[in-house]
From TrEMBL:
A matching Pfam family: TPR_9
Organism, scientific name: Vibrio algarum
SUPFAM superfamilies attached to this UniProt entry: TPR-like (SSF48452)
Protein family per UniProt: Belongs to the UPF0162 family.
Source organism superkingdom: Bacteria
Name this protein carries in UniProt: SirB1 family protein
Length: 269
């Protein structure tokens, strides 16, 4: 079982934390290969930029190298695939989603000394570039393009409605546990879509080590147990959510699920 806590994740690069998390979810994750590949790619990038003396030009060259020479890009054809969240498959395929590509981008950029940080923007993961005494810039790690605040506002309106406003907290640097938590949620969603319930259950168990008794996480765990035919445990989790969140619209739906489960044969695994 995964035993790292927030303070452990804070001391790691985001990629290192994600790799530990991925291995905890899927023991087939080749940790040794991932670490070797990260080291090889870093050496390749450093060699490609060795003649760059101006830091800003060097950063622009790094962005081009990451997205064009190395070929990292967003997976528009299978965006929700779990292959886009597990760090080993992202490295092998050179495809991912904002949080996985952003973590790799931050890893290499950080090793090169660039002033970059991660942001868990409401619509997607972003990279913040903050040169000393200059206006902060924002990069979409899905494609490496700079994103203006007016575009970020449009994204926010698209998700939250026409009254949404861009606020300073939306652009606040996220700590590593927050980023890893979001990554974990995305991983669980991908695995649920693929009906890989055993791995999804590990995601839920991991999430509950960070936020014990989270009713929404326990509700999701109940759904997973139901799919695994562990009806008694599913009922317990559903009842916990109903008791903790009686006003949530999902509570009424879960009451119906409980009645349906009561009418079925109970199997305990």
């Amino acid at each position: 079982m995964f035993t790292l806590f927030d303070e452990d994740l804070d001391g790691m690069d985001i990629v290192e934390g994600a790799l530990a998390l991925n291995h905890a979810i899927n023991s087939d994750t080749d940790v040794v290969w991932v670490k070797a590949e990260l080291a090889n790619l870093l050496s390749e990038i450093e060699l490609a930029l060795v003649n760059e003396s101006d830091e800003k030009q060097k950063f622009d060259s790094f962005v081009r190298y990451f997205y064009y020479d190395l070929g990292f890009k967003g997976d528009s054809e299978a965006y929700f695939s779990s292959e886009n969240v597990f760090i080993d498959t992202v490295l092998k395929r050179r495809k991912g989603i904002p949080v996985s590509l952003g973590a790799l981008f931050l890893y290499f950029a950080g090793k090169l000394g660039f002033p970059v940080e991660g942001i868990t923007f409401p619509t997607q993961f972003l990279v913040k570039l903050a040169w000393p005494d200059e206006k902060v810039q924002y990069i979409n790690p899905y494609n490496g393009e700079y994103v203006a605040k007016k575009i970020l506002t449009a994204w926010l309106i698209g998700q939250e409605g026409p009254l949404a406003k861009l606020k300073p907290e939306h652009l606040k640097t996220a700590d590593h546990p927050t980023i890893i938590g979001r990554w974990l949620a995305v991983t669980k969603s991908a695995l649920l879509r693929e009906e890989r319930y055993t791995l999804a259950l590990r995601c839920t168990d991991l999430a509950l080590t960070f936020v014990p008794d989270d009713p929404y996480e326990i509700r999701d765990r109940g759904f997973i147990y139901q799919q695994l035919d562990c009806h008694q445990i599913a009922k317990s989790d559903y009842q916990f959510f109903i008791d903790q969140c009686p006003e949530d619209p999902a509570a009424e739906l879960l009451k119906s699920q409980l009645r349906a489960l009561d009418s079925n044969v109970i199997t305990i695994h």
